[in-house]
């Protein structure tokens, strides 16, 4: 169970801060059932509510600072995704995003980055699907790392490049 003040990764909403834990005051909702009230860190003026026993959406603690630093050092060793069927590419991207696994997010970023460069080299445009999932994966990964490392989200990309290029 999480506590008030904890930062968690909550599905496609990214990093959220737990602001309350308690019953919901809604008709038809048992007063015995406890919910997390969370505020997304990168979505303004928004609140989310989920039962504390939720199992349908991935909800996990953000990495600690030490875990994040170690993870960044390991990025160069993470492989891209292997997508066997081109027709399933978007579905595999979507499933990978929903896993909320930082290693899988890096795999998506590496895979799509390679595809984008290859397409551009061939004089082709980047597909809208690749562009969409590339940005979602970067946003999710950088959002968590920013909270863990105590920096702004827009500083994370440079931080990663400094660590893996040295």
User: How far apart are the first and last residues' alpha carbons, in Å?
Assistant: 39 Å
Strand fraction: 15-25%
Instruction: List the strand order in the largest sheet.
Output: 4-3-2-1-5
Number of strands: 5
> What does the largest sheet look like?
5 strands, antiparallel
SSE order:
EEEEEHHHHH
Shape: globular
Describe the 3D structure:
The protein has 166 residues and is of the alpha+beta class. Helix content is 43%, strand content 16%. Strands 4-3-2-1-5 form a 5-stranded antiparallel β-sheet. Strand 1 (7-10) and strand 2 (15-23) form a beta hairpin. Helix 2 (89-99) packs parallel to helix 4 (128-149). The protein is globular and about 60 Å long. The model has no long low-confidence stretch (mean pLDDT 93).
Topology at a glance:
Elements: E1 7-10, E2 15-23, E3 34-40, E4 48-51, E5 59-61, H1 65-74, H2 89-99, H3 102-121, H4 128-149, H5 156-164
Antiparallel strand pairs: 1-2, 1-5, 2-3, 3-4
Helix pairs in contact: 2-4, 3-4
């Amino acid at each position: 169970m999480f506590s008030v003040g904890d930062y968690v990764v909550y599905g496609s909403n990214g990093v959220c801060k737990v602001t309350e834990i308690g019953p919901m005051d809604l008709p038809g909702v048992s007063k015995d059932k406890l919910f997390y009230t969370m505020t997304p860190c990168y979505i303004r003026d928004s609140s989310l509510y989920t039962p504390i026993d939720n199992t349908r959406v991935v909800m996990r603690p953000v990495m600690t600072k030490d875990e994040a630093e170690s993870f960044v050092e390991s990025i160069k060793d993470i492989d891209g995704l292997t997508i066997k069927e081109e027709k399933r590419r978007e579905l595999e991207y979507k499933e990978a995003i929903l896993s909320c696994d930082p290693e899988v997010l890096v795999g998506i970023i590496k895979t799509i980055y390679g595809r984008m460069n290859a397409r551009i080299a061939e004089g082709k445009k980047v597909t809208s699907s690749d562009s969409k999932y590339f940005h979602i994966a970067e946003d999710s990964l950088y959002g968590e790392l920013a909270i863990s490392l105590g920096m702004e989200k827009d500083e994370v990309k440079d931080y990663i490049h400094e660590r893996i290029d040295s």
